[in-house]
Design brief:
By secondary structure, the protein is mainly α. It has helices at residues 29-56, 60-73, 78-92, 96-112, 116-134, 151-166, 170-187, 193-209, 235-261, 267-290; strands at residues 2-4, 11-13. A hairpin with a 6-residue loop joins strand 1 and strand 2 (11-13).
Amino acid sequence: MQIKCNNCGATQDLNVSNTCSYCGNKINFEEKQEIQNVQQNFENSNMVKMAEVALAARKYTEALNYYNKALEVDFSDTEAWLGKANTLLLSNSFRESFLKEVILYWENAIKYSKDPDSIIKKITELIIQKIDIWSPLNSGDYDGWQVHDYPIFRNFETILSFAISINNEKMKLYEIGYEIFNKELNLNHYKIEDHIKFENKYVEAINKLDPSRKLIPFTRSEIKQNKEVGEELDDETKKKRKILNIGGAIGVLIGLIVCLVDKSYTPLQVFFIVIFFGLLGGGVAKGIYEKGYLN
């Protein structure tokens, strides 16, 4: 890091002796430290700003690199920790494998902040915002949910629990948790054991803080229990799968007939021909079903 001598004006690297290499002027240590801090803060501010620009352009790897550089200069940079957490959330959409990292970054942001209450508020608001944006409940297409949609609710529970652990205003977060799992369990015929526990946890917490609410938890007698997501299927889905299986089986049969008629095919060629006709049969059956010819 370079410093300008206030005696001769020469710009040079800082040295251990705190003297100017050109005129020998003694540089005050406190002044030296103050200049160093100003330059360091300026560098960090620029790094964070560059990261924010990259993040806005959805260049997530570039944003993470800038945040990391800022933290290399100042490990206690709260904005860099917050930015790093937000970048991971945006680039991975609540993937479970990244949530531990995100929570660690939030914890560091709180730990190193001079105003932890404001950081806690900022983190809580961000969590609520992200849940609202990414929740399948807000899509309106409840029937279109797939099995892979369900883990996101467990991830919502993970970060909501973190927000509750750091926030004094817990009721709002309990209400959000209750709304998510109550709506999800009522709208779908898939009832996942973990989600029932999450729902009842929020019911209990709200009733404890406000006994007048008298919310009723889910019970086993009121719900269909599945050993795993998707075990129980509605009649329409069962019908569709049956038609696809029949189409695939017919395709496989046609493939075998083709191979029997022309016996010049090698075993490997027979395998691929049978697979091809099986997939083709399933695809044709799907097209016929979706066009409503079998209804």
